[in-house]
Amino acid sequence: MGSESAFLGTVNYWLAAILLLIGLHGMLMRRNLIKKLMAMNVMQVAVIMFFISLAMKTGATAPIELPGVTEVDAYINPLPHALMLTAIVVGVSTTGVALALLVRIYNHYGTLEEPELLERMHE
Question: To 5 degrees, how large is the angle CA 98–CA 22–CA 12?
């Protein structure tokens, strides 16, 4: 029973690691640039999930002043959540720019497959 509870306590870390590996596999093994971009987004979700999991604090409450609560340890630190919200906004922005660049690449070269694209670039 002890090993089950140890696994359940770390399941979010395992999921983040699995997502990171799936994203890494997609970045290394796929030849289509859109698939590589989506794999990069999966890796981003894994990192954000990992940091949010690290920020979790059992028995703590939101960082809003409550009557009778004077200890700092009773509150969750809002900084990691704010940083990950910023990371989400930056990730969405970079994905949008990358998709716009991929549209331009496709319009110019007629493909998004990496080997074909490299051949056409050297012609």
Answer: 110
Identify the CA nearest to 108 among candidates 121, 122, 119, 95.
121
Token pair in block for residue 5: 């509870």
In the chain, the N- to C-terminal Cα span, in Å, equals 64
Contact status, residue 120 vs residue 111, Cβ threshold 8 Å: yes
Q: What is the pLDDT of residues 7-37, one digit of tens each?
A: 667 889 999 999 999 999 999 999 999 999 9
User: Looking at residue 45, which CATH number applies to its domain?
Assistant: 1.10.287.3510
Q: Domain residues for 107? A: 2-122
Number of structural domains (the chain) is: 1
What CA–CA distances, in Å, run from 80 to 44, 64, 72, 101, 107? 15, 16, 16, 31, 40
